[in-house]
User: Which sequence fits this backbone?
């Protein structure tokens, strides 16, 4: 049995924040779930995916975040509890659906989890999703701890049904990827069948309907404000003339700091967990008893702006501060010492606790950046493209996936990236204004997510570029989730269709299409050159399974390679490919047979043909 | 109860997250409050993996610079890189078996020499126990058991609020059944090394 389906209320379990959120939804009886994977939220959908195979829960990996929201929005409007999971930038994709769904509302609870990534551990920006709650006019909950994440998720469904609106549940990486002890509650049996009565004047958002629905939304927002005023997720800790208002993970740092700085009796803390709409009365009452107020929130000054506006309405004149050069930054994530130091500074108290590190750091330590795996097919494709384009003046727009790592030396195959799917649209723009050859890259999952639309656009508008689709048969970067091109039967899962990228590209009327097996370098280079010479839109699909994924599917392994005595130390293998199976020992190039996957790309690059397959690992062991 | 902050650093694939999980489960078993946080962005792509484990009565699950009571490194360069987490009282444990990053492995960057690396740690932190955990893991029967060796060494410091007995019990019940014996052996070798 999946551990999150354990039906022994009162049991305590050590759970990752993302597991706690999935469990909270199960306790609420969620029946329909959908997501496009995205770190830091990926483990929530992974757990739903696993549980859906062992229970009545419906889960789907949707093609992108907008579709996942549409699927769950409809299910919720048949009265079925539903949940949709995405990372912060996924919300940009889903935003079109979100804005008008807020007008329409829901009948069954709909919880939309959005995971922000302050410091951008694994994202292209650190946008603050709280503005989406404001923009859409939807209630937002923000947990401060792992245990609370479970509880809030469960209650978010009830709140959604009370308000008949979707609820945004917002986390940050530090909640998603923290682990703590969680006490299990009872599981509610999901009700997977819904009903729908036609009511076009409620559900079909033509202008005449939407004019009514916008008024409905604003009325709901008023109700939500009242609920926020009395929500147990908004609470006050401690007493004193000084005030701190905070949300999310910052609350943990604030609570620890107040204890460490021995500010008991001097500071009271207002923790906002039901943070949009702002609990106006609660905040005004809190401010009324404070001489000065510090607002501690990662990201943008969302609370600060709202609270200052409320103080102005009440003609309050105490100092209210949050962001500023001496206080908190909008950049990156906070940590306990930083919050403690800023609190001490703001309230002019001695920072008696341990101060931060005096360590000046080691600038010259060799870095350990993530790299493409040994045997990664993307390395082979990038190398082939580079060789095929060596006489051309090229720009390489790229996309979001493992292959973005191709930016690093020695490959250096990335010139422009803004968001998932941007490879095709940006390629079109560059081809209009530059005299360069435009070669763009996207992955298979990314192709379906949104790059496909840009390719359709390119065919229609007669743009001029080559798109290389790096088809490794899975959504590799986020942990091998399936996508519409994956053969689900291979995973032992029935009930799925399969869309062939090659057939899609053909059907779009792309002028030139070719498929390469990137480990066959010479042939790949020749095929790529033909595509690059084509005037118009050309597509090359580089098809080779992700090596990590292949291992997990227990696909037959290939023989590793070794460097024979023929090696003349040109080191083209290392300088051109940068495969992590290589190292230099006693000034000789060697290959780690445990890491080499036998892709043989290095053997094809070596000018001396010195890299050979190991026939027998044991007997050849002395040579490596 | 007093707060103990343990930082574990490793290279992706060395089993840092499992080590942290064992400690978390051992704390749960003993009824000791615990919170952990991890940074494992692209661990499978050879990056660095960090776990912060905070035992005791605090709310945060993150360890700021200068605030680790214990730093455990599965790889010496990564231990050195994490030195900013230490203060002059921090107890540092590290394996001395290097896993050079690619640039160093192919001679495009210099891996710090081990004596100077250890001196730098000692100059800054409170104490250092350094030993070849990979060798002990191999001795236990699995080179992948470096994490269990380090857990043993950590238990032997008696600085953790969880007991060695609790950790052993957790290894027995929470690590994969066919590795339990090797894991326990690796734990004991680490324990004896540090004790």
Assistant:
């Amino acid at each position: 049995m999946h551990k999150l389906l354990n039906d022994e209320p009162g049991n305590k379990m050590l759970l990752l924040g993302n597991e706690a959120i999935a469990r909270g939804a199960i306790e609420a009886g969620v029946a329909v779930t959908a997501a496009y994977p995205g770190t830091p939220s990926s483990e929530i959908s992974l757990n739903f995916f696993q549980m859906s195979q062992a229970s009545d829960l419906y889960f789907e990996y949707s093609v992108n975040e907008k579709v996942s929201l549409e699927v769950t929005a409809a299910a919720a409007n048949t009265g079925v509890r539903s949940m949709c999971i995405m990372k912060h930038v996924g919300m940009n994709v889903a935003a079109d659906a979100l804005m008008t769904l807020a007008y329409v509302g829901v009948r069954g609870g709909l919880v939309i989890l959005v995971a922000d990534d302050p410091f951008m551990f694994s994202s292209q920006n650190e946008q603050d999703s709280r503005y989406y709650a404001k923009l859409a006019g939807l209630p937002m909950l923000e947990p401060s701890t792992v245990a609370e994440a479970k509880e809030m998720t469960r209650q978010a469904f009830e709140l959604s049904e009370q308000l008949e609106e979707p609820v945004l549940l917002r986390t940050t990486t530090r909640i998603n990827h923290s682990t703590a002890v969680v006490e299990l509650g009872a599981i509610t049996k999901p009700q997977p069948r819904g009903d729908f009565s036609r009511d076009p004047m409620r559900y079909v958002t033509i202008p005449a309907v939407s004019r009514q629905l916008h008024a409905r939304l604003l009325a709901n927002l008023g109700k939500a404000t009242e609920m926020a005023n009395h929500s147990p997720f908004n609470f006050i800790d401690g007493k004193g003339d000084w005030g701190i208002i905070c949300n999310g993970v910052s609350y943990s740092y604030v609570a620890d700091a107040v204890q460490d700085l021995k500010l008991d009796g001097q500071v009271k803390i207002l923790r906002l967990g039901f943070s949009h709409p702002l609990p106006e009365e609660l905040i005004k009452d809190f401010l009324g008893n404070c001489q000065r107020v510090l607002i501690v929130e990662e990201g943008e000054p969302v609370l600060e702006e709202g609270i200052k506006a409320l103080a102005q309405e009440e003609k309050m004149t105490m100092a209210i501060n949050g962001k500023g050069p001496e206080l908190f930054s909008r950049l990156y994530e906070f940590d306990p010492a930083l919050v403690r130091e800023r609190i001490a500074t703001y309230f002019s108290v001695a920072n008696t606790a341990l101060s931060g590190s005096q360590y000046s750091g080691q600038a010259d330590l060799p870095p350990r950046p993530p790299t493409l795996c040994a045997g990664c097919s993307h390395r082979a494709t990038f190398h082939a493209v580079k060789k095929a384009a060596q006489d051309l003046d090229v720009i390489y727009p790229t996309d979001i996936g493992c292959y973005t790592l191709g930016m690093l030396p020695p490959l250096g195959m990335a010139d422009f990236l803004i968001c998932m799917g941007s490879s095709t649209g940006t390629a079109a723009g560059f081809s209009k204004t530059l005299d360069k050859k435009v070669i763009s890259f996207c992955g298979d999952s990314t192709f379906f997510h949104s790059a496909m639309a840009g390719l359709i656009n390119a065919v229609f508008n007669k743009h001029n570029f080559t798109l290389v689709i790096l088809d490794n048969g899975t959504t590799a970067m986020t942990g091998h989730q399936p996508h519409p091109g994956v053969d689900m039967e291979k995973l032992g899962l029935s009930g799925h269709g399969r869309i062939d990228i090659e057939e899609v590209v053909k059907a779009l009327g792309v002028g030139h299409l070719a498929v390469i097996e990137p480990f066959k370098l010479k042939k790949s280079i020749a095929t790529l050159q033909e595509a690059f010479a084509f005037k118009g839109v050309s597509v090359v699909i580089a098809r080779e399974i992700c090596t990590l994924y292949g291992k997990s599917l227990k696909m037959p392994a290939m023989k590793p390679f070794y460097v024979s005595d023929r090696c003349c130390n040109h080191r083209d293998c290392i300088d051109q490919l940068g495969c992590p199976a290589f190292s230099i020992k006693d000034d000789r190039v060697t290959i780690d047979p445990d890491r080499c996957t036998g892709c043989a790309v290095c053997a094809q690059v070596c000018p001396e043909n010195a890299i050979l397959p190991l026939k027998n690992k044991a007997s050849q062991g002395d040579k490596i | 109860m007093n707060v103990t902050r343990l930082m574990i650093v490793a290279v992706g694939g060395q089993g840092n997250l499992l080590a942290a999980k064992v400690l978390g489960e051992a704390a749960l078993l003993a009824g000791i409050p615990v919170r952990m946080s991890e940074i494992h962005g692209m661990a499978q792509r050879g990056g660095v993996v960090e776990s912060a484990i905070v035992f005791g009565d605090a709310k945060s699950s993150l360890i700021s610079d200068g605030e680790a009571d214990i730093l455990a490194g599965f790889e010496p360069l990564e231990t050195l890189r994490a030195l900013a987490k230490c203060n002059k009282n921090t107890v540092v444990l590290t394996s001395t078996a290097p896993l050079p990053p690619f640039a160093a492995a192919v001679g495009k960057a210099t891996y710090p020499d081990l004596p100077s690396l250890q001196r730098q740690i000692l100059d800054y932190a409170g104490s250092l126990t350094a030993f070849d955990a990979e060798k002990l893991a191999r001795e236990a029967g699995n080179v992948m058991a470096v994490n269990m060796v380090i857990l043993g060494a950590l238990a032997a410091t008696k600085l953790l609020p969880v007991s060695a007995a609790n950790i052993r019990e957790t290894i027995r019940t929470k690590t994969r059944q066919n590795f339990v014996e090797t894991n326990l052996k690796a734990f004991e070798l680490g324990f004896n090394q540090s004790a």
About this structure: Chain A has four domains: 3-229, 231-346, 377-552, 561-623. Residues 231-346 of chain A form a domain with the Rossmann fold fold (CATH 3.40.50.920).
